[in-house]
């Protein structure tokens, strides 16, 4: 079975044998994908000329209604998405829920808050700026939807959520989308787009789907387009440096590698609630989706005096978790996405092992439950330890995109901050401490290199949203190595798909233009 592409309002099968999609547990081929001979320039032109104008004829409220209808259709097919998650990703029920239910929630969230924008076809930003003594000549900043295409080049780990978290704010803004899911797990995103197309919710050209190689896609993007990429820093660098992207100053939003950290405060001794909560959080982050999350904890920093106790507590929990075929109800940890990713994880482990000790796991020959290790793509959950993080190199630079984390010790806040900053920019760091002075020092020391900081003390306990859980109301992204991009953050995410400009003119002209605008207070509240 070859999955067709959806471009220029029609389903088209790519040429050639295509790339195989496989079950990471059994190694069985599930389907094939190909973008060969698909006219990607035509796909973009059709979206710009047909999809974009049709979307922009609608108000923000009307486009929010489209998102609500999409959410209803996708929710009705939730069970099928779970089935495909099991087949194509080897996902446990928890893994599938994290991706699929997160996607559905995000789509519903943007449908809800989009309705708060009421009417209007562009946005007014800030107050009128007097530019003359009599105030008859003034300035006003506006935001107008981009008249190009939002091109999504997505990662393999979240085919559902990656699609919805980008599609929702783009479509709400009035910008058509072209989705290019990562090849290994394209089936789930393909099915979701197929369901939306069959439901005939969006105008023709508002959504396109390309499965397989991106080929010459970037050769055809223009200054009014937006490219949003999630994946490796190497691929991100190639996108940013693409000749056409540079020549036409195409807007690029990147979410890339991230060596995220979790911190245990000096006030959290063994037996305290925060010590136990962080142990639980670390184990969840290492095992959910087999550690294949951009926000997963990679470095755990604990006071030197708690180093051994924390390592023993995490190892004890990991030893009780069964790793193997998710079709077995006792299994809690599934495979990585394919053999290539398994090899990448094992190679990364070897690099880390040069300066780390293994506290738990790390066995290439371990036996997964109900699976053939020769055909499957499992990586045993592995906890490493590094007692001298200040002199270590690989720990702060090598991301093993799987169920692997490294425990480091620190002697004081400055040592801690120095080590965290050596990650060169991350999506998220967590601080578990009830010592407000310590938390403030850490936040001031690392805030500029992080997109999000989760602070947990005894007052919130287990009620927090989680280190690795991205919520649509808050910023997702991070500086430096993490890509420098920003996504979500409620209605602020719409800024990526709008262009800002100022009108300087007669005050009556300013007022007339403002009458065409939706209220932007929610963007900055």
Description of the structure:
- By secondary structure, this protein is an alpha/beta fold.
- It folds into two domains: 2-15 and 25-256 and 485-524, Aldehyde Dehydrogenase, Chain A, domain 1 (3-Layer(aba) Sandwich); 260-473, Aldehyde Dehydrogenase, Chain A, domain 2, CATH 3.40.309.10.
- 35% of the residues lie in helices and 23% in strands.
- It contains 15 helices and 25 strands.
- The chain has helices at 40-56, 60-76, 78-89, 93-114, 159-173, 186-198, 233-240, 243-247, 273-287, 307-319, 339-353, 413-421, 436-446, 507-514, 521-524; strands at 2-3, 5-7, 10-12, 19-22, 29-33, 122-130, 137-145, 150-153, 177-180, 207-209, 226-230, 251-255, 260-264, 297-303, 322-323, 331-333, 357-360, 382-386, 404-410, 426-432, 450-456, 475-478, 485-488, 498-506, 517-518.
- Strand 20, helix 13 and strand 21 form a beta-alpha-beta unit.
- Helix 3 (78-89) packs antiparallel against helix 6 (186-198) and helix 4 packs parallel to helix 5 (159-173).
- The mean pLDDT is 96.
